[in-house]
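Allow me, if you will, to draw on your knowledge of protein folds for a short while. Thank you for your consideration; the sequence and its tokens are set out here:
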Amino acid sequence: MALSMPAIMKTTAARLSALYLLLFAICAVLLVFYMTSLSARMLTAQTQETINDEVLGLARAYQRGGLPVLVRVVEQRSRQPGANLYLIADVNGQILTGNVQSLEPGVLEAEGWTTRPFSYRRFGEGALERQRNPVADENETQSGESEVQTEGEKGHNAIALVLRLPNQMIMLVGRDLGEPERFRAVIRRALMLALGMMGLGGLLIWFFVGRAALKRIDSVSEASRRIMGGDLSGRLPVTGAGDEFDRLSENLNSMLARIATLNEGLKQVSDNIAHDLKTPLTRLRNRAEATLSGKHKTTDYRQALEATIAESDQLIKTFNAILMISRLEAGYSSESTSRVDLAASVRDVVELYEPVAEEAGVTLETSVEGAFVVEGNRELIGQALSNIVDNAIKYSTDSTARPTVRVALERAGSEIKLSVSDNGQGIPDDADRARVTERFVRLEKSRSQPGSGLGLSLAKAIMTFHNGRLDLLPGNPGLSVVMSFPEREDR
């Protein structure tokens, strides 16, 4: 997708690149100027120290032999390669000896260190310049300006220490500043080169990295438009790079998968309600029609109304179970959570169902030792366990041996497992064991038993709400339903 420059600058990648480039450039400029200033001060300090040493040496020469010895030493040192600046002038500032041909005006008027760098020209440079450019030299002569000032303005820069000798003659010892100036020039060129490379690098980074990021954003936007158009099977692209775009796409894909699952569950609920609740509603209508079709005693009408109320209560329970399952599967519930002792919940449920098991001729056993604490809702856990124990009692009566239901609680690693096992015929087929946890699913052999097919569905939803799972395992014989809870970390 081609973007204009204003549109490009509105992108996050371009803004970040420009911001980082500006920040780095400011830091680089400040660092370079700081290092340049520090290096210049260090070089100046070294220069002054060198000049002081030279002055001490010349002072000893003057003390040893007076002005003749001093002049001889100055001439000797001024002829050496890379020599400092040496100058001896009379009281009026006329240069007598040394390697300096001219100075800018005012340098020799004050004693001590020069307040600022001054311009000068070494001995012999003026003649060489006139040989190279005779026309310019003729013009300078005709202008009437002093030779010292003209040549000084075109010379080098230096700092110096000016001293007045006891006979009022002037001595100057200085050092050329060409080396610090060359250092500054090198630093400036390096800075310009670094800024140019940073600018080029920023453009390359934007071109290769920013454009790739924009392409990925465009692909995500295109996939989002398809999903918003109603295609919930679409997914955002994942390149496998493991970056933030992949993590965002994976999270959104998980969200879309969750939405698709909820939509499918809603569709199944609607289909199950239309199919499975049609029979009890038809039975209610037929009973009412049969009661009104002829003359009956008052007791007959009363019995018909009582049966209708009982059937209506069962329908209300079914609807409440459906609503509870939907809320739990959607991750929303008004139920609060707290510390729950599973051992106490098991004892309460077993105590509640002992009369039911005894009436059905089923032995109800428990195996619970110690305390098993989880984070959850005591009422929901009790309801799930009650549904499972009720199913185990109902479907263990067809056992060839003595019907037995066993409730056990044990710790397995970081999980607490609550299992309800019976020795009935069980569910041998793996596909049937996976299918019975769906809403309104009842196997053929269970059609003779009362129920709506929502008990295990509700138990599964309750376990999902508690970040656990519900497993149906073959008992050999019978069936074992295992509720696995994550154990509290602060145990």
Q: What stands out?
A: The chain has 13 helices and 14 strands. The mean pLDDT is 78. The CA atoms of residues 9 and 429 lie 63 Å apart. The radius of gyration is 50 Å.
